[in-house]
Fold this protein.
Amino acid sequence: MLQERIDAAAGRRKAALVLKNGRYVNVFTGEICRGDIAVEDGVIVGTGEYAGEREIDIGGKIAVPGLIDAHVHIESSQLSPGHFAQLVVPHGTTCAVADPHEIANVCGLGGVEYLAASAAATPLEVKMMLPSCVPATAFETSGACITGKDTEAAIATARYWGLGEFMNYPGVLNKDAEALCKLAAARKAGKIVDGHAPAATGKGLNAYIAAGISTDHESEGPAEAAEKAAKGMYVHLREGSAARNVAANCKAVTAANFRRFLFCTDDRHAADLQEGGHIDNALRVAVAAGMDPVRAVTCATLNAAECYGLRGKGAVAPGYDADIAVFDDLRSFRCAMTVKGGRVVAEGGKALFSSAEELPACVRGTVHVEAPAPEKFRLNVRSGRARVIGIGAGSLVTECEVRAVQSRGDDVALQGTDLLKLAVVERHRGTGNIGLGLLAGYGLHGGAIGLTVAHDSHNIIVLGDNNEDMAAVTAELARIGGGMAVCGGGRTDSLPFDIAGLMSSLPAEEFIARQSALCARAREMGVLPGFDPFMSLSFLALPVIPHLKLTDRGLFDVDKFCFVPVEA
C-alpha cells in the first residue's frame, strides 16, 4: 500500500480517485488554490495535476477538509447514531467528537457502548469521550453513576478519546475529591479534558484551566470567549438548537487568535439538522457575521483536529486522510459531495449509505415511574412571593425573579399571569420525587407538555397551567416508555423515544414529521416564538448552568450551588 501511495503521489501510476477541475482550501497558508486532489488507499497523496482510475469533475467547486463537530451529544438529535449520520454526512461532516453523557446518565457505560457500536457502522467517524459528570451534580437523581474509580479504569482504554465536558465547575474550584480523581486519571492517561464553564473569568478560570481542562463551549459573550482563548483554551463556537452563540462569539476571533477556536453544535435537533444543516450551518452564520471564510474553515477542520489529536484529519494535503467536503462556495456552504476515506458517501444532499438499528436490552424500558395523581402537582406559596425561573430565547442561562403570586385552595393561582407550573418527576429508581417550581415567559396555556429528555439526569420534565393535564402528560410518558407528549382539551398526543427515553429508532424523515406535529400543537397552545417548545424546556433541569434550575429534588440556585425554597 505504501509503495502504491508513493507511486500515485509521484505521478508514476494513476491514483484510485482524483477530484478534478476544482479549487481547495489550504488551511496551512490561508489560500484558495486550484488543482486536482489525488487519493490512494483512502489517503490524499497529492494536489496539482493528476490522472485517476476514477475521476470526478467537481466543476470549479471548492473542496475543504471534512468538517469536524468538536463537541456534540448525538442523543440530542433524538435519533439513533445511524440516522444522525445520515443527516450530517451530506452536510460535509466526516468526524465528530461525541460526549455521550446523556445516555450514560440513563444507562451507564452500557448505553455508551451501544452508541459507539451503532456509530461505527456508519461512515461518520465518531470519537467517544468518557462522560465526566454522571450525574452532573449530587443534587439530582440519575439512572447511573460513573465514579472516580470507574473513570480511572475506563479512561485508560482506547475506547475513549478523552474526558467529556467537566460541568462540575464548583467541584473543581472546591477541590472535590471525586472531581480531582477524574481529572488526575485523564492526565495520567494523557487524554484531553473538555470543559463547561459559563461565566468563568479571572482567577476562577485560571484555577479551572490549571486543573487540566483544555476547552470550553459555554462562553456567554465575546469578551469571555477572548479571555479563555488568551489563556490557552480552545473555545468552541456553538450553533445548536436551544443555544446559538456563533454570531456573537465569532466577534472574539482575530487574525492573531483564530487558531484557538473550533465549531460545535453541542445539542441540535433532527429537524434543525435536516432543514438548516450541521457544521456547514455554523460556517454560514460565522461568515454572515463577518468572519473570514478561510479562517472559519480552518476552525472547523485543522483547529479541531489539532485540539483533539486527530492525526491525519483537518487538511487537504499529502498524507492526510481523504475526508473531503465539496462546497459550491464559501458563503452558502451548500455541500455538493462528501468523501470519507476516499469513498463518496454523500452527494446532492443525500446519504449514500443505509442504517440498520439493533437495540440492546440496556437501552430499552428505561422509564420506571407510577403516574402521579393531579394533586401531586399542587404548589402552595403561603408567603405570596415566589422565586420564579425566567427564561430568554436562544440562551440556556435562566434568571431568578421574585414575583408576587396568589394561592387558592392550597395551590398557586396561574390564571391571568404569564406564570406556568414546572415539574421534574424522577423516572429511574421509582423514588416518587417530584420537584415543583414556577416558570415565566414561555407562553403555554390550556394544557401541558413534557418529555423524558431533561438534561442531564433525564427525568420527566413537565410544564403546564393545570395539574390534571400535567398528570396526564406524565402518565402518557410512562405508558410509552419515554418520549414527548402534549395534553390539552381532553386530547393527548405523543411520540415514543424507544432508545433510553432519549432517542427514536425511526428514520429521520418519519421522526421529524411526527415531532413537527407535536411542536405545532405546542405552538397552537401558545409557546412563544424564539423557544423550541421541547428542547428549550429540556434544559431547565440542568443545575450547572446559571442561575435558577429545577431538579427532581427541588428548586436549585446554581450560583449558591444549593437548593432554595420556592417561597421568597
About this structure: The chain has two domains: 64-346, 364-369+378-563. The mean pLDDT is 96. The first strand starts at residue 15 and ends at 20. Residues 364-369+378-563 form one domain.
